[in-house]
Design brief:
Radius of gyration: 17 Å
Order of helices and strands: EEHEEEEEHHEEE
Structural class: alpha+beta
Shape: globular
Number of strands: 10
Oligomer: single chain
Distance between the termini: 20 Å
Largest sheet: 8 strands, antiparallel
Strand content: over 45%
Strand order of the largest sheet: 2-1-3-4-5-10-9-8
Helix content: 10-25%
C-alpha cells in the first residue's frame, strides 16, 4: 500500500483536497457560503484521468467524508426493444486510477468482491483516512464511486 498520497486533485475547476482540509478551506476554494448542514457538492474532472465526477463532502467533528461519483454513464435503448446497451468503455474506470494512486486493496475485500460479482467494494486503510472503491454493474447501468472517511 502506498502511504505518501497527500490528497486528491481535480481540474476544471482546479481543486486540491488534502487530508487536513477544513470546512473553511473548502468554502474558500468553492467560493460559496458556509452552510449549517456542513454538506457541499461540486462537479469537476478528476486528475489525471480527466473524467467528470460529482464530489460530495460532509464535515463532522472528527474530519470529513468525501464521495467521488463517476458521472459518465452512457446508456442506449433501442426503440424497438426493451434491452439497454451500456457503453462498456465507461465501466470501472476508477479501478486503475485508485490502484495506481493508493496501491492494492486489502486482500479480504478483494476476496469478498470475487464472490459478490458484479458488485464489489475494495477497501484501504491509512493513518489519516479509510478509502472504499465501490462498483456495481447491472442491466440498468453502473454505479462507481470512491468513499473517503478522513479523520483529523
Amino acid at each position: 500500500m502506498k502511504t505518501n498520497v497527500t490528497g486528491i486533485e481535480f481540474i476544471d475547476p482546479k481543486i486540491n483536497i488534502n487530508w487536513k482540509l477544513t470546512e473553511e478551506d473548502l468554502v474558500n476554494i468553492l467560493k460559496c457560503e458556509r452552510n449549517d448542514s456542513h454538506f457541499y457538492i461540486f462537479e469537476a474532472k478528476l486528475y489525471p484521468i480527466d473524467i467528470d465526477v460529482f464530489s460530495r463532502i460532509t464535515f463532522n467533528d472528527f474530519g470529513y467524508k468525501m464521495e467521488i461519483i463517476v458521472s459518465q454513464t452512457k446508456q442506449e435503448r433501442d426503440k424497438n426493444s426493451k434491452a439497454i446497451y451500456i457503453d462498456t468503455n465507461n465501466m470501472n474506470i476508477l479501478h486503475n486510477y485508485v490502484e495506481e494512486k493508493f496501491g492494492s486493496p486489502k486482500f479480504f475485500s478483494k476476496l469478498i468482491s470475487i464472490i459478490n460479482k458484479p458488485f464489489y467494494n475494495h477497501r484501504w486503510t491509512f493513518d489519516d483516512f479509510k478509502l472504499s472503491h465501490k462498483y456495481q454493474d447491472s442491466v440498468i447501468g453502473f454505479y462507481e464511486c470512491l468513499l473517503f472517511d478522513v479523520k483529523y
